[in-house]
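Exercise 7.
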Amino acid sequence: MAATSDSTLPAVKRSPMSYKTLLVIYLAMVLLPWVLSYFEGLAVRGWYEELVSFLSIIGLSMMLFQFALNARVDSLAGRAGVDNTMRVHTKFGEYLGYLILLHPFLIVLPRFIVAPSFALDDVWDLFIQPETSTGMYAWSLMLVWVLMSVFKEKTGLSYEAWRYAHSAGFIAIIILATHHAVTIGRHGRYNAWFDVMWIFLCIIAVALVLYIYFIRPLAIAKKPFKVVDCHKGSANDWYLTIAKDGDFNFDFVAGQFTWLSTSKSVFSRSEHPFSIASSPSALPQISYVIRELGDYTSQLGKLKPGQHIWLDGPHGVFTLNARNAKGIVLLAGGAGIGPIMGILRELGDRSDSRPVRLIYGNRTIEQMMFLEEFDTLQSKLDLQLHLVLEQPPKNFEGHKGFIDTQVISRAIDHPEHDCWDFYICGPPIMVKAVAKNLQKLSISNDRILYEQLGF
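Solution. The predicted structure, written as tokens, is:
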């Protein structure tokens, strides 16, 4: 193995923007319109009126900024990481749903207290009066939109149909909500620039949707890929290899992921995110580990060599860089071995001298991949392998159960493990559980990187 000094150690690339930093920036942007409303010089009303005004402004603001988190704009995703942006998008999508649901009832609540016999008529008037109707249409659509997001796995819709409905509903909602704000909003009546601000933000939000659906595909079409091979790598996982179909620049960093589409048209939205399992040295070929979970993934065996594939990416910050970690622990669950394998292969290409520990969990031995390649990598690296099975066969020498504190403690039995970096990849429930186990072992959050399979 080639020796590597501590000053030049390649290690983890952390996102330059943490989740907390992204959260602070998002909240600042959401609150900005409300802060600006106080520069208009309007008289301050009672506390309840001001509270409703505050919730109304930040509700619309959240709605307009929400899609920016999910628009796959490289400058944002590359700075913050897709896991971080999707985490904020999902969490504040829930809060937004609550705000929108309560909005009309907060407006008429005083009426229920002062004159309850007229309150229901006032609620009905919100739906039928021309000046409030667009707001109520937006409210109704938003309710459906949020419910579809929360219960998307129970709707029976395909992933593609859900994405189309999600984006189309978003455009309709923000246009209706913006119209409602500029026609009935108190602030815009006295200062036109406040309405201009809402219209401008609405245009930007819609433009992001149009960019994703119509502009970005044109760039993707200039860099086609083709299928090289697709076969079962384990009882439940496909191993897909594609290659560039032309002479164009393309690069990635081990551990990143891409969106793949096998549709005939690049404008089709039937695309799915999969992590890269190869290292950059394998280019012009790229490989993926894809667990068969029904729907789209069950059809992967029908892919033919030479068939075109459209690739959007690479994305993600679950990668190697120069952090000077003195050791690396890779924790993979199921198909999470994909990006972990890409990182491991890159370490092998470098003949990295640091201690590397791989903890790889699955349900059965038949679901395990790359067992022979691990043996080869052990000749290049200071690699220790710890296999974990829920249902192990007889004479299994690994750890039975889950990736718990016991197997992690055994893997990091090293005096300098507090200077190591820990990568976790797998299903969301596994990632959360393993992260908690690392925290129980007093591993600093700054040393933990994760990527969960699925958004």
